[in-house]
Amino acid sequence: MSAETQDRYIETKAQLAQLFQSVEASLNGDSNHPLHAFRRKAMDKLQTLSFPTRRDEDWKYTSLNRLLVNQYTNQASLQLTATQLAPYQIAGEDVIQLVFVNGIWDKSLSKLSAKPDFLVIEDIKTAMADPTYKDLIEKEWTQWALQSDSALVALNMAFAQNGLFVHLPANKVVENPIHCIHLNSKTDQPLLASPQMFVVAGQSAQLTIVDSFHSLDEKAVYFSNIVNRFILEPNAVVYHYKLQQESMEAFQINHTEALVKRDGNFSSFALDLGGRIVRNNINAFLGDTGTHTNLWGAYLGKEDQHIDSQTFIDHAFPHCTSNELYKGILTDKANGVFNGKVMVHKDAQKTNAYQQNSSLVLSEKAQMDTKPQLEIFADDVRCSHGATIGQLDESSVFYLKSRGLSDEQARSVLQHAFLMEVLENIHLEGVREKAEKLVFTKFDS
Q: Is residue 184 within 8 Å of residue 102, measured between CB atoms?
């Protein structure tokens, strides 16, 4: 790390500490709440950690300098109407709708009428006041979040204002997806938004969550620093979709971890279209036999966007499977990064793991760095991984043009078809159509 970068990061920490002190000063009686004790511990932990630099192997291709140079605020109120919200909703799905504006849960715009009584959806502060969930949350925050060596996780824990707690009891199925709409606007000072979600799916329960991220101004500068924690009890099934269309000047860091217990099934899907710098850290820990995990991702980078996806699947037990497919398209001066790691431990016999990353690079100045990894310490496994980086097939472009399409239309059709292999894994029709619409909008921009 250069001396200039080191000084910048030290200054950033000092600014964040000052911001945290101003938040504390505004809490009044809430400063004694158990949740704030965790925030304070997280802030103390942040001071002992270093922000990642390109000298760190996992951050070799991604610099946070442009992100950390800003002075942030975490307060930016904004009132929206239902009409303004309409373009971001999912058509054709009866959803449980939660709306977050500039990082704050707006319950007046949220709709919980489709929520069954047995499903618990609360902000974490309220959930911690319930003896039923207090010990569970405190245990996770102590043993998982506060033990993380990530400065960005600590930053989220320190500044999250409306963390979301979702608890689904055993043997319950929620037919209607939970749709969390995150909207950010242009503010006088760049906003630090800290979305946080803790989801527990009981034994043999099933749930779908859709996170969509949008900007009300395509030039708005803000930082969405996200932490998601999923716990799947035996035989639980959870689908988590992220549809990301942040401002082209925004930054998003997404840290998602899932603990999947015996015979559980966790599926994660990330569609990244917006953002100046985007980083996904997706980790799945297969914590018993018979588990299965799907990690799917699609990305489309233009101008000077930088989209980085890092995945880790930990196979520690036998008879588990995982499937991973990431595909993306880069043009102009966009950069893409994929680093997927699958670890198969000595006792994880009969593991079946598949991983593939494929990218189209459509301009001379665009760049893709890919590194699929398998670390296998068991001998009775079926594992494969691969990566391809290429361009559009010009013979296919010529064929479509011979059928009456313009050159631009032909290339758009082929690019969409390329991404459809990933998009078709979205199991809800309304969500899949929403994702396709966002992709088409990006193609046309």
A: yes
